[in-house]
Automatic annotation (TrEMBL):
A molecular function (GO) term: RNA helicase activity
Annotated Helicase ATP-binding domain residues: 25-203
GO (cellular component) term, any one: nucleolus
Catalyzed chemical reaction(s): ATP + H2O = ADP + phosphate + H(+)
Family membership: Belongs to the DEAD box helicase family. DEAH subfamily.
Keyword Cell division: no
EC category: hydrolase
GO annotation terms (biological process): maturation of SSU-rRNA from tricistronic rRNA transcript (SSU-rRNA, 5.8S rRNA, LSU-rRNA)
Keyword annotations from UniProtKB, A to Z: ATP-binding, Helicase, Hydrolase, Nucleotide-binding
Full protein name: RNA helicase
Organism for this UniProt entry: Wallemia hederae
Record region (Disordered): 269-335
Record's compositionally biased regions (Basic and acidic residues): 269-283
Amino acid sequence: EVSRTEELQTSRMLLPVTELEQEIVETVLLNPITVICGETGSGKTTQLPQFLFERAFGTKGSLNPGIVAITQPRRVAAVSMANRVGAELGVGSPKVAYKIRYDGNTSPETAIKFMTDGVLLRELANDFLLSKYSVVIVDEAHERSVNTDILIGVLSRVVTLRNNRWKENLQSTSPLRLVIMSATLRVSDFTENKTLFQQQPPVVNVAARQHPVTIHFAKKTSNDYLDEAMAKTIKIHKKLPPGGILVFLTGQAEIESVVKKLNQRFGAKDHLKSQKPKARESKANSNAANGDIEIEEVDLGDTIPPTPELDEDLKEVDSEDSGDESGFEEATIDENSSPMHVLPLYSLLPSDKQLQVFEPAPEGARLVVVATNVAETSLTIPGIRYVIDSGRAKERSYNPQNGMQSFNVSWISKASAAQRAGRAGRTGPGHTYRLYSSAVFENHFEHFAKPEILRMPIEGVVLQMKSMNLDVVNNFPFPTPPNAVGLSMAEKMLSNLGALSNTALTHSQGKSQITELGRSMSLFPVAPRFAKMLVTGFQHGCLPYIIAIVSALSVGDPFIHEEALKNSLNDDDSEDARQAIRKAYFKSQQKFASLGDHTSDLFKVLSAVGAYEYAGGGESFCRANFLRLKAMEEIHKLRAQISYLIQSTYPSINAHFVPKLSPPSETQLKVIRQLITAGFIEQVAVRKDLAEENENAGKKFQSCRGIAYKAIGIEEDVFIHPSSTLFSGEPPGYITFTEVVSTSQPYLKGLTVIDVS
Ligand code: ADP
Ligand code: MG
């Protein structure tokens, strides 16, 4: 029996899902799989578990004694929703509990369990039948995170297995039910996918009920969305009636800088002092040791463009105020002087600080929450009336050329923009200010975001699945399946790298098992090839060098090449001057290539990185040494990020980022060469005369010009690219390459001589 306060009872009655309680419960009871669509705020996350709980789901001795599980893509949602539902039911933990990585408050008493989808995937690895549960609610399915997609795929099978067992009376427990919840109506990838669900699951649509939200587009779209977001916040605060402001930006660094500036100027000073952040740090945020890295834990590439001082911003805004005035004409107030209560909200923020956004702002202060996507659908922040939408988000993307995953700021989808806008209409009529024009919205925003699984290197996904003990990758019922040929090639590649147990028979059937090495590799958000180099790079103090090489390979060639150099010489340069430049060029090339004595293009890059850092970086060094400044700066940044990631994954290993690199010792060079060979094991080329044992076999050559090589998987002869440091020496027998470029003939680049001694 549940007793709720009268106030709570009333507000529950107003939620759109409550009207459909009967229909929802019956559908779930009568069907193994149910899909529920309802706009953000309609009550799905908070009410569904309660509906089922009140029908004795999760109650010992009932027909469905197993726990009610609700999965979330984000940890903050799992924690805050467990708190909220516990409070609504008036029971709290451990009856309603949460479990996220490294943290949780579940107990044998738990009836409703909120968890991240990553946690449930790991539980599946140990108990494929999920015998503890009677129903799994997969929430926020519209976000299409890789974990959610994989979870739905696995659960489609688990549900069938559990139901068969139940029918055959093999298990004394209940069947398992699956509920998929989405904030958008686009659920056809789930409902119409026959591989996934043979029988189309019923869809319950919850009507939207919310207050009108007026949407204001910007007249023009500026790249400086941080400044614009800040200016708009200030203007709303000064001129518009009370109501919280929710600002959508893309990442931690941005958010912290905006919060700081707004607080400095508009924060309630005394209040801030008394509210020092608590020293206690949530366990959940300590580090990522021993676990898989969830997307939200990685914040690569978050750089803050330099912003002028706030006062200058204000002047600018005021003077060019021709801007977008809509929304300000009604009920503007004369210069509001009350303080702002500014709070950040992003995934990596410690839980106790995240939860502050749910607490009422101090008397008289205006709540301003500066958030990432976290606030887009999963969380409801009370009292928000104004939304400022930068239109951007940090998204995982993948470059098939270099195999590097990155998190880039890009435009959101129209569906996301609608979700963000809807955040202004929860408590009353609201306004949404989009910091982009309607033309940009129409022409550059996709209708829906691409599922994350299509934005990742597939060998990374396969490795991730194998690390969760999901073995039959080829027949896996993905909601949106990646290319099948790509999948089996990925398996082959992973076997070659030693990440999967290697028998030809098993991997053609998608049944190869992950190895210990593979498990460690799965922790890194870089291509498996690079992950392997990093994991094995712990030996002999080689890690900083491997990090530098992986960073350089990911960024791309930092050298200015001879062709480009020729083009840059001016016609009116005197012949002497040209000679001098050419001489300097060859001298610097020789200097870098002397590391490892012209045997590796990767050593040459390593040497350039070392020299650049030793000189303290800078444009003049790059000019003097024919390096691209931007590439060098990016390599520097990436080194710092990868070091940070390794440090937080393996706290016992000293991977603190030290920009300066001392030159590697002979032993270290040897190890690095082996690591490169291991990382590029299927990108090996052999000199043709040696491969075919033809008449030239063993002959000495002056240079690599015209010397043919054979590479695995490439039909034609391949050649060493003239830009390689190996080119002018005697052609080596065995090399690894990072790249094949086809011009008049296929050329290999990024070469390293394999040590066959
Ligand atoms: P949905 O999952 O459909 O987006 P929710 O169940 O999360 O909706 O929220 C429904 C409503 O419950 C919200 O609109 C809000 O009014 C209320 N609510 C949810 N969480 C909280 C909270 N932490 N504090 C106050 N009200 C909340
Ligand atoms: Mg929800």
